[in-house]
Amino acid sequence: MSSRVHARWFAAAALVSACSLQEASNRVDSTASVAQRPSTRGWNPNTWQAPVVDSTPDDPFEVSVYRGLALITHTRDSLPGYVGGSLNCTSCHLEEGRRVNAAPLVGAFARFPKYLDRSGAVVPIEDRINYCFTRSLAGSKLPSDSREMQDIVAYLAFISTDVPTGSHVRGEGLAKMPPLTGDSGRGRRLFTDNCVRCHGNNGAGLGPIPALWGAQSFSIGASMARVERAASFIRHNMPFDRPGTLNNQESFDIAAYITSMARPDSPGKENDWPNGGTPADVPYDTKGHKAFHPPKVLPRTSNPAAAIVAAPASVPRNK
């Protein structure tokens, strides 16, 4: 590896780790709008900020919260048996789950249990976390009653402190993009100009930078495998050192290129959206939907059944 590549690698690594909890908690997005329920006394989504995690916890709950933060930040190292690729939770949920328009985790605890169209069921937050493990991390579901799962839940609960049940926060999720069509040919050139210095020519990532395709990347069942969702993430967050410098069309082009590449399978994906209504850019067949530009799918090599998070079932039905 050349000295120039070494320098870029260390710069990228420093950039990934540079955001402190205090810095992240003080950032405010002045452009994001909020869809909210009638406000509760003292609750103002426009001024609310997630609390800072105590780095010297002094009670069992604070210890659990701190462990949860460590787990989402170093997921592949802490839980190698449950992560199939090179991603951590914070590869997508940037700045420890605090950055707006980067699928932030702040406030999420207040919105579960929740009905999810993709599951066709009301699911608890533990299931939603496991969708990330099985789809975005291309791994296996974490036991819901495990200490590790409850540490992650404790972290999500803490950074949702004072958010009323069912309420929304600023910049949550991924911003909806305009109806554009991406061109993977243009996307390849843009990827070379903007992305290879961190993710490499083969999309495998460099050091702490995650893979964007191949066996170590997110699965075909991840939201990021959809062109529009990937374009939104790119538009607002990439390149990591120059976020916001790519326009909507460029973001769609890069997303079209990345999502066209081979990636791990998502066992049971054909059962998604059981009541119909699959988004048009989902890259695999579901009920009433034909795959949108499906990429090559790489088989899961270890226990595919552990990659399926079943919808909650009735107790009498199980007797």
Topology, element by element:
Layout: H1 3-17, H2 21-25, H3 60-73, H4 75-78, H5 94-97, E1 114-116, E2 121-123, H6 125-136, H7 147-158, H8 184-194, H9 196-199, H10 227-237, H11 248-259, E3 263-264, E4 297-298, H12 315-318
Parallel strand pairs: 3-4
Antiparallel strand pairs: 1-2
Helix pairs in contact: 3-7, 8-11, 10-11
State which percent range the strand residues make up: under 5%
Please name the CATH architecture of one domain.
Answer: Orthogonal Bundle
How is the largest sheet built, in terms of strand order? 1-2
Which oligomerization state do the chains in this entry correspond to? single chain
CATH superfamily of one domain: Cytochrome c-like domain
Helices and strands, in order, run as HHHHHEEHHHHHHEEH
How would you sum up the major sheet? Answer: 2 strands, antiparallel
CA-CA gap between termini: 60 Å
SSE class: mainly alpha
Question: What is the average per-residue confidence, as pLDDT, rounded to a whole number?
Answer: 89
Low-confidence stretches: 1-39
The proportion of residues forming helix, as a percent range, comes to: 25-40%
Helical stretch tally: 12
Classified by CATH, the class of one domain is Mainly Alpha
| Rg, Å, rounded | 19 Å
Number of strands: 4
Determine the CATH topology of one domain.
Answer: Cytochrome Bc1 Complex, Chain D, domain 2
